[in-house]
Amino acid sequence: MPPKASKKDGEPAERPILGRFSSHLKIGIVGLPNVGKSTFFNIVTKLSIPAENFPFCTIEPNEARVHVPDERFDYLCQLFKPKSEVAAYLEINDIAGLVRGASAGEGLGNAFLSHIRAVDGIFHVLRAFEDTEITHIDDTVDPVRDLETITQELRLKDIEFVQAKIDDLEKAMKRSNDKQLKIDHELCQRIMTHLQDGKDLRLGEWKAAEIEILNTFQLLTAKPVVYLVNMSEKDYLRKKNKFLPKIHAWVKEHGGETIIPFSCAFEQKLVDMPEDEAAGKYRQEGKTYVVQDGDIIFFKFNVSGGGKK
Questions:
Q1: What phi and psi values does residue 39 have, to the nearest 5 degrees?
Q2: Which 3 state secondary structure label does DSSP give 306?
Q3: pLDDT tens digits for 211-236?
Q4: Nearest CA-CA partner of 44 in 90, 88, 87, 113
Q5: Is the pTM of this model over 0.70?
Q6: What is the model's pLDDT at position 307?
Q7: Is there a contact between 153 and 260 (Cβ–Cβ < 8 Å)?
Q8: How do the domains of the chain map onto residue ranges?
Q9: What kind of architecture, by CATH, is found in domain 24-272?
């Protein structure tokens, strides 16, 4: 066998990936009320679900499948000409807004949190725009406060679930000497300590055997997250926003996952335009410009006639 490649000095250890692996994944759109979740869902899926200016406009989650284009898949189909072609798709769920106290049932929180448990990953939408005509459930716009609210509610719900699991395991251990019960119990205690320390489970260090057990729990803070920062059209086009540095600092401190700034208002304008007008003003086929700053990804537009969405 060839020798194992040694890690470079200072290279960060790769975190284990929790969850299932499939070409058909389910993503939940999560955030406070009135941050742009339903509008984002409509833009991505090209549907027209209600997106109103009041909390809990969405009650039951809206679902849609979005085709995932892949030139490699098209090439292989052309090459081998299979009898059936099943392309990958992303199932997107627009989940109702969470509020402070959701883990204790506030704002129909228990139902909404159960919807999050059913998905494989999370699009966490943050409001980074000010608009007096669009109310904020906390009256003022503060994306970092909103981040703290959502992550704490997810963590509290996981603590509730894990505590119930520990209680069930302790009862079962009194009736049985099954070694697996003890293994599960020890893992649940580690999970509980991790959560009570204010840490999300996807950011912990878990062994392969532990990950197999963790995946059966479908815990909310174990799910991978992409942060979608919804800015005003003006801020998005000039790539400046007063909230973005604070959001970036918070995310770096809490796992350093991907941040994608975007603008629902701008994207909606493109969707509502006739295709030829949008293509002439904002898109140029074959060219995509991506500007990266750490883990912040901007999709750059040239309003005067270049740049592809």
A1: -65, -45
A2: strand
A3: 999 999 999 999 999 999 999 999 99
A4: 90
A5: yes
A6: 37
A7: no
A8: 24-272
A9: 3-Layer(aba) Sandwich (3.40)
